[in-house]
Amino acid sequence: MNPIRIAKNWISYRRTLSELGSLSNQTLSDIGITRYDIRNIATRSFR
């Protein structure tokens, strides 16, 4: 993996964490995820 791709993936990971983390519990529930799921979802964007 090249360093540029790693950096872009890391940015995507952090953005996903931030965006999902800023949602209310009700909104997360409406889309079918919990706060516990956020890290797993963001990890998938990092790969």
UniProtKB/TrEMBL annotation:
It holds the Pfam family YjiS-like. This is DUF1127 domain-containing protein. InterPro entries: YjiS-like (IPR009506). Residues 4-39 form the YjiS-like domain.
